[in-house]
Amino acid sequence: MTTTELTDVDRDADGFLRDPQQWNAEIAVQIAHEAGIEELTPRHWQVVSYMRDTYLATGEAPSIRTLGKASGVPIKELYALFPKGPAKLAARIGGIPKPHGCI
Amino acid sequence: MTTTMEPTRELDVTPAAEELPEPIAKVSIIISKGSLDGVYPGLIMANGARMDGIEANVFFTFFGLEAITKKRQDKIKVATVGNPGMHMPTLLGVLPGMSWMATKMMSRKMEKLDFPPVSEFVEMIADSGAGIYACKASVDMFGLEPEDFVPQVTGVITVGEFYEQAAGGEIVFT
Asked: ipTM for the complex?
């Protein structure tokens, strides 16, 4: 079995993957650990997948407002799951570029 | 020759440039104005802080209280008078409907950029874990009661209590 290591993927200075295609679930778990999230629960995955799928479909990461309304995880829970900032952290774990919106 | 100066200057600069400034860990944002253009910047900064994992508190004072007053928060308008940024002569700004129109235009643009209306924005910020406070002096001055405020308000506090809350962080006045 081959394991993808974080050192195998190309990331920017903030730890975001430069190429979303290099991403896989192992990478996601390792980035989560790096960010202090011990375990990616199904609720974490719901947010991460929504973030990634939206980015891959539209070319833009959803805002925190959209995330709260459309991911199925309300804002309060988003912050409980990703205390250091839900949108950016979910984007980092989901292997997509850093979101640039102000909202 | 000036070459003797070069190494000294380089030595001064290099270590400082490598030393990153301490990241901001906490902000206390004061919102003191009751116009749309007075309220949004503070809300955006508070929400933005939480989005980056920065602890945030928002303190509403004077006309800023409109943003957390149930009956007022979604009726906040753009100031068309005394606002040079509107590029509108003051005498035009006083015409009936002018502020309504400017507000409508700005709200449409903000909705496109995914800016929530004031009520939803305050709720989002509260849900993100930020404290929402009303200034006691202003509440007394305007004769407001606790039931006049939206449920997200954490408390009515004095300026002294505000400084206690703000301890260890940055204070931003808007």
From this structure: 0.88
